[in-house]
Amino acid sequence: MYDPQIILDAVDAHWLPILIGFGLAMVLQNVAMITAVVMTHRERWISIPLPCTYLWFAHDLGVVARFNVWFHDYGHWFLKLFWVGLLTALLLELVFLYQAVVVGRREYLPNGTTAQWGALVIAGAVATVVLWEYLKHMWGDPLYQAAPAITLFVLPLATTALILRRRSAIAQHPLMYACFAGMVVLWWGVTARFYGPFFTGWQYLAVGVGAFVMLVAVTVLVARLRRRDATPGSSAPYWTGQPLKSAT
Q1: DSSP annotation string for 74-88
Q2: pTM of the predicted model, to two decimals?
Q3: For residue 245, is it within any domain?
Q4: Within 13 Å and on the Cβ side, how many CA atoms surround 155?
Q5: What is the residue range of 146's domain?
Q6: Does residue 242 fall inside a structural domain?
């Protein structure tokens, strides 16, 4: 996939713009994720789609669990900072999973018990970790610098599916997706500029463009739906878990 040493040499040679770009990206990520936690708590519906939470959790757990690789095998200062950044994301993802157990049953398992739903959520997380570790082994990506492209690309797809199914932007906020769109610009800007040939291939760049366009579209969609749902007398109530009546 890529030579890890090329990336580490690039970081040492261009540490200031790389730290600024990734630092701002991490700030945007944390703002988006904390906003998602707040929206779930406030409106009592899952905000970040469960498939994304599973995927992010599997990715970030893989980084955090490999503490020895970053701090001893490589021992590079950048990888140590990367570990700290992903640890904060992992903690927020644990909050996502907890909130999913608390508020998600009425949407996904209305006739089940809280214990049954909680077991399903945990089983889904475990299964995704197993699958992700296999994919990671198959793909390579020794420094976890290419996989974030997948986690960002999947988000607008899963969110659009969630909104269309609910026919509402409940528990969503445009700030979340605007932050993630900004994160795409920063992440691809750094990696494509400094990381070498793999990160300038048309496939990697196309994923970045696609993720950005879709995240901007979701930002606009959520903003419009929130305004619509807040309008007095709106004929489009939040999805309640019951089939919505046909317009015909």
Answers
A1: I--HHHHHHHHHHHH
A2: 0.92
A3: no
A4: 35
A5: 4-229
A6: no
